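hiii so um. not sure if this is the right channel but i have a protein structure encoded as tokens and i wanna go backwards to a sequence. like what aa goes where. can anyone help
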């Protein structure tokens, strides 16, 4: 029997950017806790593959491709999910981009717009299309995957860090606006995790060694390290938490 505190049986969850990395790990964890999970990313074939793999475990998943930077795609994702399942209980905003690695002084305008559109505005679109129905039922949960980059300055990841700080504030605003309807909104802020998205930060052995030495737990993260927090926030165990950012970084941010 599942622990009732963390049982998501009967819940419908959308996870954006869920065909690899942290999004995939969260989607798998939610499904294993009993949720029906909508797998979403830009590439339909990848969504199909991941959903099929989850269903092969005897769990419930369906693929709906979506480019979160395109409003029409976001609208279709929400509409298709509601058409198929009638409701959305858990919204995980995980999809993000980072097209610029370098100082802010060399940041092109189009890269600025792309990061803000995909990492921040798309999350607001998703929430504005989903939360009214949650409010009618007086129940719902939003989880935004942010980053510890949003907690400090960065010489090379400035616009990405700005977008992730904005996501933390978005969660706080949503918590205040929608809390009276029993809707919770929180962020998860991972540290360096071994994903394709962060490959440039860990694939160099020297860079990796420095990162591990500066981490109290002496290793960088793996996607599964982040997934449990999403299950907690989506479940009854997280019923009285809202507007918060959970940092999962092996201790980096407290080590100086």
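sure thing!! here u go:
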């Amino acid at each position: 029997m599942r622990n009732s505190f963390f049982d998501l049986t009967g819940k419908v969850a959308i996870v954006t950017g869920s065909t690899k990395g942290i999004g995939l790990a969260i989607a798998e964890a939610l499904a294993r806790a009993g949720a029906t999970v909508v797998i979403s990313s830009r590439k339909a074939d990848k969504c199909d593959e991941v959903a099929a793999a989850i269903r092969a475990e005897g769990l419930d998943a369906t693929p709906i491709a979506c480019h979160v930077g395109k409003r029409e795609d976001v609208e279709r994702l929400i509409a298709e999910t509601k058409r198929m399942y009638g409701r959305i209980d858990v919204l995980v905003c995980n999809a993000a981009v980072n097209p610029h690695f370098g100082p802010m002084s060399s940041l092109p305008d189009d890269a600025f717009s792309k990061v803000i559109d995909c990492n921040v505005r798309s999350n607001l679109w998703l929430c504005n299309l989903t939360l009214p129905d949650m409010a009618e039922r007086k129940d719902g949960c939003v989880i935004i995957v942010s980053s510890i980059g949003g907690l400090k300055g960065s010489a090379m990841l400035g616009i990405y860090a700005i977008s992730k700080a904005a996501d933390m504030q978005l969660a706080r605003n949503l918590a205040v606006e929608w809390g009276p309807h029993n809707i919770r909104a929180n962020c998860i802020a991972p540290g360096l995790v071994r994903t394709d998205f962060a490959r440039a930060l860990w694939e160099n052995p020297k860079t990796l060694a420095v990162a591990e030495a500066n981490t109290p737990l002496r290793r960088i993260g793996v996607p599964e390290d982040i997934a449990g927090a999403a299950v907690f926030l989506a479940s009854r165990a997280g019923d009285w938490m809202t507007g918060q950012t959970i940092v999962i970084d092996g201790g980096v941010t407290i080590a100086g």
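oh and The CA atoms of residues 104 and 158 lie 6 Å apart.
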